[in-house]
Design brief:
alpha/beta; TIM Barrel; Arc Repressor Mutant, subunit A; 2 domains; nine-stranded mixed beta sheet; three-stranded antiparallel beta sheet; 23% strand; binds iron/sulfur cluster
Length: 365
Amino acid sequence: MMLYLHIPFCVQKCLYCDFCSLPGQGAETLAAYAAALCRELELRSCREEITSVFLGGGTPSLLPEEALASIFEAIGRNYSLSADCEISLEANPGTLRREFLRTARAAGVNRLSIGVQALQDRLLRSIGRIHSAAQAKQALDLAREAGFENLSVDLMYALPGQSEADLLESVDFVLAEGLPHVSLYALTVEPRTPFGRLQREGKLSLPDEETELAMQGAAMARLAEGGLRRYEVSNFARPGLECRHNLGYWQRAPYLGLGLAAHGFDGQTRYANTTDLSLYLTALSRGELPPGERQALAPGEAEEEELLLGLRMVRGVELAPARLAALAPRLDPLLRAGFLTLQGRRLALTEKGFPVMNALLVRLL
Ligand code: SF4
């Protein structure tokens, strides 16, 4: 079993962000939220061993140290963690503090994922990030000083005004720092964001698809030269340092999601907590689980998810013989065209298939 805890607070909203995160909340709200999360940890406690914990957001590094410590105490009281449990925390370079990192380390966090995005101040400003490139570099120094070695950074490409040289400069920095893990994401413009509005008004100038693919290819080649192997469509790692928690999602492992708007999955049913902060806090202050939705997978949905999630991984997905037989008419032309490979019962995308993954999935499902 895995645990995901959502910390839905940010200093300000990035211009592209449509995650559930609330900007500008005060210390009182953060403390009340941490207390509610501790209560939810208690209410959802289970006997199964926890193999990974992930604090994501939002901005978990915005939490006061006492709040972070109390959350880990609640995890310790209510769950049994495996000896080699991976415990990740997402951090924004604009909020990282020495004391916070010390508290996180002491609480057992052993993997830090830092939202660097780019190393050019003009690009960081243009997407609404709260930090500078210098702060991103300093965040890595602070993390190492606190004893973190298993570090990951997020980088973005296809940003307005970003050149391939800008992207490679960021990738080279990551490689020069010897980081073991990188997540590389293309900017996606979501309709309900400031970037979505600017795009509708024709005021957002983005690289075309061909340029975007060229940027991705150049960055991937550079990462491979530096020893970071792609293991998922957007993730690269030194062998053995892949994110186990995220691998669990792609392999459809069960997990408990806690916090505002968090999702969970028990193998058959998916649930989602409310996205309304006051409903969330009120329910937990009464000792009740937060309201939300619960949905059993419809017939065929598990098989669909197996492909959608499994093919994201370079290792692909092992399919049952009956499933392979049912897929054969749609699969064969894609295998012949070199978009997919099939070894035994393991189906995987090829290098040619990854850039057109979404189109291939439409043809397969
Ligand atoms: S820091 Fe992350 S979660 Fe917060 S607004 Fe920016 S992209 Fe969204």
